[in-house]
Specification:
This protein is 34% helix and 32% strand. It has five helices and seven strands; from the N terminus they run βαβαββααβαββ. Strands 1, 2, 3, 4, 5, 6 and 7 form a seven-stranded antiparallel sheet that branches. 32% of the residues are buried.
Length: 168
Amino acid sequence: MTDAAPIIVTALFGGEDQAWFDRQRAAHFPPERNFLKAHLTMFHHLPPSLEGEVRQRLGEAARAGAPTARIAGLMSLGRGVAYRIDSPALEEVRAHLADIWAGLLTPQDQAGWRPHVTIQNKVDPAEARTLLTKLQADFRPRPLVVADYAAWWYRAGPWEPLSRHMCA
């Protein structure tokens, strides 16, 4: 059922990393807003007409292998906190797709991409600054397993799965 719902494209993580990010979200995200698993958004709003092509392109990206990545640091979102992800390979995949879909991207998806995983959002800025300071105190960069690419229908609530593509 597509009924003109936009498509969101994400990268998802290996089991241990996914569980760790999900625990971080459970601990810090406002509970009434935390209805998604942790994810790294690659595209926020693709037209529904791209459904078949999105499946095809994400399948190709997944068959090319899992991109090397690491959790590189923390970043302020103003009213939230995220972990900054460093992955030249993932950035290359995203740039390739952005080139293909260039004429169809929203301004948000045309803007510079800052790969991150949000663990807190829509809180008072002082609360966000406090969490950022706390997490930075003992943060150490570490490897991150990017295991899948996924596409979702956005229907103004929990996302509806469209497709998932496991990296080779």
